[in-house]
Amino acid sequence: MEPNHTDDTFGGFHDAARDPSTAETAGQPVIIEGSSEELRQAVDDVVSSAEELYRVADVFVGKHAQQRPDVVLGAALGVGFVLGGGLASRLGARLLTFGGKMLVSRALEGFFEEGLERANGFTNDD
């Protein structure tokens, strides 16, 4: 059967798993058809996108680390806690719930204060 290169094509590659004629092969590896040059170009595009994402995230975190290091440190601790399996314990889940509630309340507090200042025409430009 000739590959369908209309809706099932991404970057010149045919995804056999999306082809209705291969429904009986569900759970088997996806067959990608295309030349090695097309595959190399697709991999280069993915690597380039990942590098750009890293640069943007680096600038974003660096900016916020200078402005609010406590927030960045808290986020890093939270991510490490979750990745380290801390949510598996009852104490970990309670600590995370408590921390989340505090974070949301502080964020909402700042949001409403800023909104009220703007509504009243008051700004702190000191």
For the structure shown, list the relevant keywords:
single chain, 126 residues, mainly alpha, three-stranded antiparallel β-sheet, 3 helices, 3 strands, extended
Q: If you had to describe this structure to a student in words, what would you say it looks like?
A:
The chain has 126 residues and is mostly helical. It has a domain at 69-120. It has 3 helices and 3 strands, in the order βββααα. It has helices at residues 36-67, 69-83, 90-119; strands at residues 9-10, 13-15, 32-33. The protein has a 3-stranded antiparallel sheet, with no helix packed on it. Helix 1 (36-67) crosses helix 2 (69-83). The termini are far apart. The model is unreliable at 1-17 (pLDDT under 50).
Our estimate of the beta-strand percent is 5-15%
Overall pLDDT? 76
Please give the largest β-sheet: 3 strands, antiparallel
Structural class: mainly alpha
Give the number of helices: 3
Outline the low-pLDDT stretches: 1-17
Helix amount: 55-70%
* SSE string, helices as H and strands as E: EEEHHH
The gyration radius over C-alpha positions equals 24 Å
Number of strands: 3
Can you list the strand order of the major beta sheet?
1-2-3
How far the N terminus sits from the C terminus, by CA atoms, comes to: 72 Å
Indicate the overall shape.
extended
What's a concise summary of this model?
With 126 residues, the chain is mainly alpha-helical. It has 3 helices and 3 strands, in the order E-E-E-H-H-H. The protein has a domain of 52 residues.
